[in-house]
Structure formats: structure tokens, C-alpha cells
């Protein structure tokens, strides 16, 4: 009886031992290039927190990485995952981000792939709601931090010691990393001239590396975007598509005066609570330093990013008494932070009162996606126009 109870434990131990003994190269050699296309819209953890899948994607020269947060997960017939492919864009979108993926999370991810980003066109969606009184919280950071990406960032020779020093100083501000010996050693020697070791030890790194490669071999879960019924919009001009998106939004927001989709409004009303978002839109938020860290990482990577700054739902935020002047101050500072660093930006914040640009309180959709789709394709085609950067 005891032996029967021990057999599963023994079997698991043998499998884990074999896993440890198999060389990393065996896993990576099994990775299939055809998986990349399915991964591109999966929003799977192996994509968001991994190294191998993104590395393969960046080597292919066929994809347009789109970094964002929860808006990427929302099914929408005007989502770039659909429209860019329907419009036969030269590059296919590859989605990287989930709810809570803010500037620092993107900066770590991009820093881990810095050596693969020279000249690469990418899009980064910035949500002004990130710029809160507290900035990125410990819980959100802990849930989204990728140890293997962090390790690759600090070992990446294409990034300067000074930039790595700034990353280390930022990371130790989080509770789970404040006593990290590696990060503290980086801070003590900003010129990086020391025997600092690595962020992860060799054993831990190999486990993560094999796990990352193994997940990339297996087909990712079905994309949440596949829940939306397909529509062929390829025959429409951008103006026609915007008109269609407005009609579509109007039909799907009939139970409220804020232009929110009906389903979201029903959920909102079922909660029966007061809404206090006054902690958002802080002009002195830590998030601005994280944005600058992201920008400087992109500079050293020599990437070609298009920042897309989306608005809030102006009518709703007025309703819950978040002062328009407070929002506008944050919009302006985001714009100035990006443009003063010579970066391309599509600033949509002057559209916060335009119907059907935002589908709920904060998420871009419908007509908003159509605006973005057009500018993404222009960026891919090298047709960036500075006039799309809002003038304050």
C-alpha cells in the first residue's frame, strides 16, 4: 500500500530528473517556426513572459510587435489583430501585453530583446490611467515580472551599464526585490566593472530556459480574440471604416449616455457602488520615470517605435468628478516626455469626448481602433506624419 502511494511521487521525481539532464538545445531545436503565427495573438504567458518565442518572432522580419495592456485582450472586430491582416499590411501584428502591463514591464521585456530590435518597427500603447498616485503596485509588479527576461536584460551587452544601474535602482523599490543581492551589487558599482554574477543562478536559469522553450513547442491556448465573429472590412476605405465603426458602436451602446458597450454598462450598474478614480491622472506619478526608462531602453536598442497614447472616456470621467484639467495635464506631460526624446507618437487624447472611440471607461475600441489601425499601417509603410502628434 505504501509503495502504491509513493509511486506517483517517485515517477514525478524521475521525470523531473530527466528534465534537468536534457540539454536546453534539445528543447529549442524542437520549436516550430509555424507556431509563431498562432502565438502572435494568443496573449499566452509563454509569449508575454518568455524569451524564446519573442526571439524567434524578431528574427523572422514578418511581424509588428504591439505592446499594450488589457485593451489587447478585448475582442473587437476593428482590433489590429484582424484589420492589419485584412488590409494585408506588410507586417503582421504580434501582441505583447495583458492587464497591468505598464511602462516598466514593457521596458524589461524590450531590454531583454534589445539586441534584436535595431531598426525594428514596434507599437507601444500608453494608457494615461497608469499614471496614478502610487504607480505600479507591488502586487501588479510581482504578477507580471518575468525573471528570465530580467536576467536577459542585465546580461544584454547592447545596453549600457548606466541604464542597467537605473533598472536596478527601480527594481529594488518593490518589496520582493529590495534585498536582492545581485541588484544591490549593480547599484554599488554603476560602471559595471565588478564580478557581480548574474540575476539568476545557473541552475535556476536553466530551469526557466527549458520551461520557456518547452512552452513554445506546445501550441498556445486559443486566442481570446477568436471569440469575435469575423468581419471582412478590407474593401472599406479608412473613412468608410470609421463611419461603419460609429454605426457599430451606436448599435452596441444603447442603454447608457456614455457611449459604453451595453454589456459593460450592465456590469457597471450591477455593482451598485460609488466610483472614485481620483488617484489616477497624477502629474507627479512614478510612472513618468518608468516611461522615461522605457524610452531610454528603446533608444539604446535603436528600435523604431510608434507610441500610441489613448484617452479616457471624457464623459464618464467628468461624471465621476475627475477634473478635465487634471487629465489634460497628464496627457500633455506624456506627450512632452515622448516628443522631447525625439520619438514618434500618435496622440489620441484630444478624442476623449468623441463617441465610440472608447468602448467602456478606459479601453480603446470600435472607432478608436480604426484610427490606430490606420496609423500602424502608415508606420509600417514608413509614412509617419508628425501632425498626428497632438499640439498643446
Fold topology:
Layout: H1 2-21, H2 24-30, H3 35-39, H4 45-48, H5 52-60, E1 63-67, H6 80-86, E2 92-96, H7 103-112, E3 121-126, H8 138-144, H9 147-155, H10 161-171, H11 181-188, H12 202-217, H13 238-251, H14 262-270, H15 287-301, E4 304-309, H16 314-319, H17 324-339, E5 344-347, H18 367-380
Parallel strand pairs: 1-2, 1-3, 3-4, 4-5
Keywords:
392 residues, alpha/beta, five-stranded parallel sheet
Explain the overall architecture.
The protein starts with a helix and ends in a 12-residue tail after the last helix. Helix 7 packs across helix 9, helix 10 packs across helix 11 and helix 13 runs antiparallel to helix 18. The chain is an alpha/beta fold and 392 residues long. The chain has a five-stranded parallel sheet with strand order 2-1-3-4-5, sandwiched between helices. The protein is built from 18 helices and five strands. The longest helix has 20 residues. The chain has one domain. About 2% of the residues have low confidence. Pfam families: DltD. One of its GO terms (cellular component) is plasma membrane. It comes from Mammaliicoccus stepanovicii. This is Protein DltD. InterPro entries: DltD (IPR006998), LTA_DltD (IPR023896).
